[in-house]
Design brief:
eight-stranded parallel sheet, carboxy-lyase activity, 370 residues, 14 helices, Amidohydro-rel, alpha/beta, globular, TIM Barrel
Amino acid sequence: MTEVSVRPVVSSPSAKRSQLIDVDVHERADLQALVPYLEPMWRKYITDFGWQPERVLPYSQYAAGGLDRLDAKLPDGRPGGSDYDLLRRQLLDEHDIDYAVLTGWLDASALQPGWAEFKTALMSAYNDWQIADWLSRDDRLLGSVHVNAHDPIGAAREIDRIGSHPKMVQAILYIADKAFGDPYYHPIYEAIARNNLALGFHHSENAPTALGFHRYFVEWHTLVPQVFMSELVSLIFNGVFDKHPELKVFMIEGGFTYVPHLMSRADQQYKELRSEVPWVKRMPSDIIRQQVRFATQPTEEMSLTQFMRLIDWCESDELFCFSTDYPHWDFDSPTEALPQGLSEDLQRKIFVENAQNGYAKMPALRTAGQ
């Protein structure tokens, strides 16, 4: 770990950043686009029965473009992330991104259980569509293996089927209302380990707060970190990290300012109650520092001193990886999201190295002049 300091350093992300990995970019598939990749027995659920993903969140997105940036919506009404050329212009080219990890839109892990075989097949179709329509079009795009967590054996089979693809860097689970540390899901982690992938956990509108869904969107959105804390606690104390000490986990679209509190609280409980979980061999904070990364979006406004103090409390500058969450309404620009004055070394860790070190299959970055 590099020693951190709260002393301001005069520089800015826009002036000093030369490379960038974005760990959360959403491409979006129209369901009809998946039909050619489904076997005939599954196509009818979309073509004949009109299946649509269940919408759980009882709010409208309180923004001009709904879920997305208004300028990311297509003239024909399609949502942001539906068109590669627009994404390329607005994100990859405008912000000079070296690699963008696609995290998708449709994921069966966040859908209610039921029709398990169909949803497993749907994720296979999504993966094939992602490779054909996105990964093959731009060297800067990297993929996530989408699986149906409600079918762990089927999910493991899908990871083994597609996880060796050179542009797949992680398997992704969208968080809903399940504690994924449960041994029921362990076949998924075993498959991830076999294929040298990272594991991404992504925020979902299917995830309630500790008290369900509050009256207003602003309440629910404020409390998003609750579900990330719940998942990490479940993974830690159910022994997932001890069973797979090489596994790297990315917590995506949940922010990161909650991390010092979680580390402190979990450490104290482990000291007092470790006899209940004898398979956990390390302090929770050490597990987090060694095996977990947090995507920065949505970044909260803070001063340089506050940001550096947060890193100091975590006792690591290797936990945070930059993400834009394109094309969503709360998109974070790499030139504006983080405090001005970060040292060049810290910028490089957040914008590049922490993601590089977390994704075992991350390709090498270009060098100056390439």
